[in-house]
Amino acid sequence: MNADGSGSIEFPAPNVCEDDPTFTPDGIRIIFHRFDPVANDEAFWSMDLNGNDRRRIGPCCADPTVSPDGKKLSFVGFNGDPTGAALFTSSVDGTNVFQVTPFSFDIAAKQDWAPDGQHLVFSIDGDVPIPGVSTNIVTIRPDGTQLRFVTNYHGGDVNAFVGSYSPDGHWINFRLNDHGLFGLYKIHPDGTHLKAILPLSDFRPRFIAWGPRPSHADEEDDEKE
Known about the structure:
Blueprint: E1 17-23, E2 29-36, E3 41-48, E4 55-56, E5 62-66, E6 72-78, E7 85-91, E8 98-99, E9 112-113, E10 120-124, E11 136-140, E12 148-149, E13 158-165, E14 172-178, E15 181-187, E16 195-201, H1 216-224
Antiparallel strand pairs: 1-2, 2-3, 3-4, 5-6, 6-7, 7-8, 9-10, 10-11, 11-12, 13-14, 14-15, 15-16
């Protein structure tokens, strides 16, 4: 649909589940997760903006996210254990699958690429709650090196669930869970300058995404204001 809610298009898919959609960076295709219970087939697919030209690209299973250059996917895969969720990458056609983190990291099903494509951000210990263990935001290189904790909460009562990078890569937004209250926050990738966007309340933001970088014309209008 359009940003103002008009012009919505529905893509009927009887008897199958289609979810986790994301645009390719050029804005001309949608990549999504699809499960067909009759065929017992689960994979990632792509289609054009009208729901046509559907292509099964595999693999699966959650939150397919396209790299800024449009060449790779990052996604969350599961090993069947209650706390077994790992970060993977592949080529955008589903080939060249690479496991970035161990399943024991049990990452939450929301992750993002840095705008320069040099890092991924995710939430460790975020899929299944473990008493006494806090969820934290972590960055890592796509080759699995340079693991870095952005937040360092402990004890399980305070948790950080990542949203996305800002278009300039200077911020990461996330939901902070603090003793039963929720807030929308942002922080630098090096873990400094924590700031509240929405203070703690009972409002619970989820699947947070930063909007695109303003156009040059928008920036000029802001300067005039």
